[in-house]
Specification:
about 80% helix, elongated, about 160 residues, mainly alpha
Length: about 160
């Protein structure tokens, strides 16, 4: 199960790197068009949307590889079982939080869709990018659930 989850999160990370490259290209194109002709319209909007996708899609990969900040000064003093119980509690709470966040971000994207909200300059709709972020947060929630199950499995052994 862990290998499959790592493959999926790795795939999402690869898409996020493509988003980062696209953001760099948009910025460079904006600078070059400003230098030689009239400025490219909507550079800020394009870059903001692409970076939101970059961050959203990279979240799960960061979590599965423990790339986040962890405070271990206190935890290393406890036994492995206590560490696993605390890990289960933290990951369980995180999973619930990210599930709620996924739901609310998805609802927000839907409200943007039904309201027809678009950007001022380029009239791009907001909702596709918000759905991508919701999908990334959903991936983070799945990783938290997996880590909680993994921790409780070590406690039960």
């Amino acid at each position: 199960m862990e290998q499959k989850l790592k493959k999926v999160t790795s795939f999402l990370e690869k898409i996020s790197w493509i988003c980062l490259m696209a953001a760099m290209l948009v910025i460079v194109a904006g600078v070059l068009t400003r230098a030689f002709t009239k400025p490219m319209v909507g550079t800020d909007e394009y870059t903001g949307f692409i970076m939101a996708c970059f961050i959203g899609l990279a979240l799960a990969h960061c979590a599965i590889n423990d790339g986040h900040i962890a405070v271990e000064m206190l935890m290393v003093r406890f036994s492995g079982k206590v560490q696993d119980v605390v890990s289960f509690i933290i990951n369980g709470i995180s999973a619930v939080f990210w599930a709620i966040a996924t739901w609310n971000v998805g609802k927000y994207a839907y409200s943007m869709y039904t309201g027809g909200e678009v950007t001022m300059t380029t009239t791009l709709p907001f909702y596709p990018y918000i759905y991508v972020v919701a999908f990334g947060v959903f991936g983070l929630m799945i990783v938290a659930v997996f880590k909680a199950i993994e921790s409780i499995g070590r406690v039960v052994k």
